[in-house]
Design goal:
- The structure is a single chain.
- The protein is an all-beta fold and 354 residues long.
- Helices cover 1% and strands 40% of the residues.
- The protein is built from 1 helix and 22 strands.
- Strands 4, 7, 8, 9, 10, 11 and 12 form a 7-stranded antiparallel β-sheet that branches. It has a 4-stranded antiparallel β-sheet with strand order 14-20-17-18, with no helix packed on it.
Length: 354
């Protein structure tokens, strides 16, 4: 059965689950967050055609047993690192086992130059949106880079033999190459690929076009309260010496089940739908007006489901029984939703009459 800890405290993600720490204050403004990759793969990720799943133009089964993808940087470049977002398909069911586990990276000075191994790396399996993994790749005079998956998270090793599970699929979501200053190199294109599942729009071109990337919104779940479902109050004081016209409170970027608005401690209204505004005119008084927006979360974060990359918007008993066999996963892999205000609210005056 579930056990619940009550009180004033914060949580920090650990290698397994979370650890309890002293209560930490919440930040008013949002952290800019990091770029993650959404879990819907159509038109956003690369997936090989697999082994025996698709057919070529002549009707023969495709067998991509030695997958690879090559990139052309456009000109000789100095590289500092490679950023990789692993395959994170999970919009219908969890297919993140198709992500790369072991990756070999080779580099070349040009189309006719020999390949040299630049490193071998282990990529973690995704749980929810993919976060970037930074792989050190200090090289000079490099124009082409080749990525060769050596295994996936379903246990398939490459070159694949026999009839591997899940047709031996393997893929990635996004790739970026960083120059000596740590900036993304523009104009990178895919030069060659072993295969791609084009019929499902899982093509290699999506690895460098930024499709699927989005900025995370840092709510209170990333500030020590991943399982909190209640309200968090965001407050500002406005000096209004002589109120005139109408006063509307408007929300920008936010997420929650409802936002309650209070003026000088009194409930002025609730915001539940676009255009995300509340008329505060009857509650505004001359002088200082303390306005509070209480964003309320949901029990999704408290009760789950927390494991197995569950899609949002639905839950059934079996989803609550999908805990990892090895015990709690890392805290950052728990499925929770970012609730909160991600930019300050605004108080707007309209017109001049009361």
């Amino acid at each position: 059965e579930s056990a619940y800890v009550l009180g004033s405290f914060s949580l920090e993600p650990a290698e397994r689950g979370f650890v309890i720490v002293d209560e930490q204050p919440l930040a008013w403004s949002a952290d800019p967050g990091e770029q993650v990759h959404a879990v819907n793969p159509d038109g956003t990720m690369w997936l090989t055609a697999g082994i025996g799943f698709a057919k070529d133009a002549d009707g023969r089964s495709i067998e991509d047993r030695r997958p690879f993808v090559e990139f052309d940087l456009g000109a000789p470049r100095e590289l500092s690192a490679l950023q990789v977002w692993n395959y994170c398909e999970g919009h219908v069911r969890d297919l993140t086992s198709r992500g790369v586990r072991e990756l070999r990276v080779l580099t070349s000075a040009g189309p006719d130059a020999p390949w040299a191994e630049a490193g071998r790396f282990t990529l973690p399996r995704c749980s929810g949106p993919a976060r970037p993994e930074s792989l050190p790749l200090k090289r000079q005079g490099i124009r082409r880079v080749r990525l060769e998956p050596l295994s996936n998270h379903a246990g398939v090793t490459y070159p694949a033999a026999g009839d591997p599970p899940d047709n031996g699929f393997v893929g990635l979501a996004e790739v970026r190459f960083l120059d000596a200053a740590g900036r993304p190199i523009p104009g990178v294109r895919v030069a060659a690929v072993s295969s791609e599942l084009a019929s499902f729009r899982r093509t290699a071109a999506h690895l460098v076009d930024g499709s699927g990337l989005e900025i995370t919104r840092r709510g209170w779940k990333d500030q020590g309260l991943p399982f909190y479902a209640g309200p968090v109050s965001y407050e500002q004081t406005y000096e209004i010496p002589s109120p005139q016209g109408r006063y509307l409170l408007r929300l920008g970027d936010w997420n929650g089940s409802v936002a309650r608005v209070r003026v000088n401690g009194r409930l002025a209204g609730r915001i539940v739908a676009p255009p995300w505004e509340c008329d505060l005119t009857p509650w505004i008084r001359p002088g200082a007006n303390r306005i509070a927006v209480e964003v309320v979360g949901t029990l999704k974060n408290t009760l789950g489901p927390h494991h197995g990359n569950p899609p949002l918007g639905s839950a059934w008993p079996g989803m609550f029984q999908r805990g990892p066999q090895a015990g709690p996963p890392p805290g950052r892999e728990y499925s929770t939703v970012a609730y909160g205000l991600f930019q300050p609210f605004r108080l707007e005056r309209r017109g001049h009459g009361r």
